[in-house]
Amino acid sequence: MALQSNSNANSGSNPVDPEKSISTIAKSTWCRVLPIINESAGYNLRRHKYSGCDEGLLYIYFYNPVATKLVTYLPDWIAPNTLTLIGFIHTFVPLVVMFCIGGFDLLGPIPQWFFFFQAWCYFAYRMLDEMDGKQARKTGNSSPLGLIFDHGCDAFSTGLQALVALRTM
């Protein structure tokens, strides 16, 4: 009987209209923990769908086709977040190597082999970054957590790449 009354109460609300449906949404844990996320913001977060595109020429003619082909060779048991993590490690390792061979100051010569090493690591990071989303869609493992993990690693990678670029100039 209680189940029937809940379905009747929800039948009149429009799930697209946040003003009508906020009253039916129970306050989530995040709304209680983070006071900056009110019920309306929580509702919008739950409805959010990521949509992004890259219209760069390298992406269109090189990275996307190559990553699409490489993903066909990956077994389904490889998690997309594993590809993301391996790609992130490829941006972290050159920074560690650079500081080991040149010290922590931003002065002094860098051996020429390091530039090739950095180029390879950047290429591997970029290709793995292209492949992780394709692997997630192929295996049906797309999730908001994976999206946040991917974007977080990309954000840190940008900063690490900038440090390496500053040191090598």
Word description of this protein:
- This protein is mainly α and 169 residues long.
- The chain has 2 domains: 46 residues, no CATH class; 112 residues.
- 72% of the residues lie in helices and 0% in strands.
- The radius of gyration is 23 Å and the shape is globular.
- The N terminus is likely disordered.
Biggest sheet layout: none
The pLDDT mean sits at 80
Number of separate helices: 8
**Helix and strand pattern:** HHHHHHHH
- What count of domains describes the coordinates? 2
Defining key terms:
disordered N terminus; globular; 8 helices; mainly alpha; 169 residues; 2 domains
Short summary:
Helices cover 72% and strands 0% of the residues. By secondary structure, it is an all-alpha fold. It has 2 domains: 2-47, no CATH class; 57-168.
Q: Helix and strand layout, with pairings?
A:
Elements: H1 2-11, H2 18-21, H3 29-33, H4 39-47, H5 57-73, H6 80-102, H7 112-139, H8 144-168
